[in-house]
Design a protein that fits this description.
Keywords: Membrane, Transmembrane, Transmembrane helix. The chain has 260 residues and is an all-alpha fold. The chain has 8 helices and no strands. 76% of the residues lie in helices and 0% in strands.
């Protein structure tokens, strides 16, 4: 293991938070911000798809560098990285669809194949895909590569379902929420926890995107008409509040453990 390669360096603590209700809430909110935030920068600010992608990739590289530098889970760095991965994943799919005019059917298949390849290589090298064991740099790099492609795949599959297949935003939210609920039920029945986690993780992307579009898009297109800026700010505010609360709880628990 990489963590044991240098005996002078202490091993990494798990770099991924516990999978709780708050984890899933922040994950869904971050995917919504990825959808609405990317649309706001590219369309309403007028940056365009390519400049927005380059700017967000730059921010993501910085955030990922901070994440990799830490030796344990730091809530604000981890979730900042997730939000930026969400934006970049959205922009990758939008670039392929809008600029290169690649079919959503094709991009969905390609991203699914790429994600499957990452999982296959990850498992072949590490013999586990569990997020409870992200304790080496190599596993962490596999993890973030998988996360990026779950966002790209989720964006393509979500757009395919809501646009190309005509589900629409409202029905899209219902369908993806029901699918996630079915996966949660399967998990409680004893289905493999790693498999159910990653399936749910992928599906939260189209759920968040459909929710973001439902709230931000014009009523003429079946949305609530709140606009991308208000939707993004509202969801970012909730994310910041939840991350602050998680950080506070973590520090309080650590302090209590030290006292004991």
């Amino acid at each position: 293991m990489l963590a044991a390669a240098n005996p002078q360096r202490p091993p990494l603590l798990n770099k991924v938070p516990e999978v709780t209700a708050i984890f899933w809430i922040i994950k869904i909110l971050s995917t919504t911000v990825g959808e609405t935030g990317a649309d706001y920068l590219a369309v309403h600010v007028g940056l365009g798809a390519s400049p927005t992608t380059m700017i967000m990739v730059g921010f993501l590289i910085v955030a990922l560098g901070l994440q990799l530098r830490e030796r344990s889970y730091v809530p604000w760095i981890y979730w900042l990285t997730v939000v930026l991965v969400s934006v970049v994943g959205t922009q990758i799919t939008d670039f392929l669809t809008d600029k290169l005019e690649i079919s959503l059917y094709l991009s969905t298949v390609v991203f699914a194949a790429a994600l499957a390849a990452i999982f296959a290589i990850w498992y072949g090298v590490e013999r586990t895909l569990s997020i409870r064991a992200i304790v080496t740099r190599r596993r962490e790099l596999f993890y973030w590569a998988a996360v990026l492609f779950t966002f790209a795949l989720g964006t393509a599959a979500g757009d395919l379902a809501t646009e190309a297949l005509g589900l629409g935003f409202q029905l899209g939210v219902i369908v993806f929420a029901v699918l996630i609920a079915a996966i949660a039920f399967a998990y409680h029945l004893g289905v493999n926890p790693v498999l159910t986690f990653w399936l749910a993780y992928i599906l939260t992307r189209p759920l968040g995107a459909s929710l973001g579009d439902l709230l931000s898009q014009s009523r003429d297109y079946g949305g609530a008409g709140l606009g991308t800026i208000y939707t993004s700010l509202a969801f970012l505010t909730v994310i910041v509040a939840l991350v602050a609360w998680v950080s506070f709880e973590g520090e309080r628990t650590s302090s209590a453990d030290r006292v004991r």
